[in-house]
Design a protein that fits this description.
single chain; alpha+beta; 28% helix; two-stranded antiparallel sheet
């Protein structure tokens, strides 16, 4: 399956499970500005420094620290690693549950998926 026509359905599946999300210092700065918090607070509650990058903490269930009710709390400023799913990285387990991927594998069967074509009003900001 080609990911060229992949459209995020904001199901949150790419944010669940064991994994490491790395941030650049600019991405951390953008997150701090978006959340209106200091760098010190971000380091205390959301991430830690690992060599040259920052790494987001996980929740106890191993999902991303910023995932709430299957939605990303920092979607407009999410890290490039997150924005690049599934084009630059993906895992079979995530793809099996990903609604955007499922739409690619079942062309024409989008009736159960959320999105503007089914009357829902939301937008995706890469």
């Amino acid at each position: 399956v080609s990911f060229r026509n992949f459209q995020c359905r904001q199901c949150g599946e790419c944010c669940k499970g064991k994994g490491t999300v790395q941030l650049s210092s600019q991405e951390l700065e953008d997150i701090c500005r978006y959340l209106a918090i200091s760098h010190r607070l971000a380091m205390r509650y959301y991430c830690y420094r690992d060599k040259k990058k920052y790494v987001l903490f996980d929740q106890p269930d191993e999902s991303c620290i910023f995932l709430r009710q299957n939605r990303c709390l920092i979607h407009p400023v999410k890290p490039s690693q997150c924005r690049n799913f599934p084009h630059e990285w993906n895992e079979k387990k995530m793809l099996e549950r990903c609604e955007g991927y499922q739409a690619l594998t079942r062309p024409g069967d989008n009736s159960s998926l959320p999105g503007p074509e089914n009357g829902e009003n939301w937008s995706y900001v890469p």
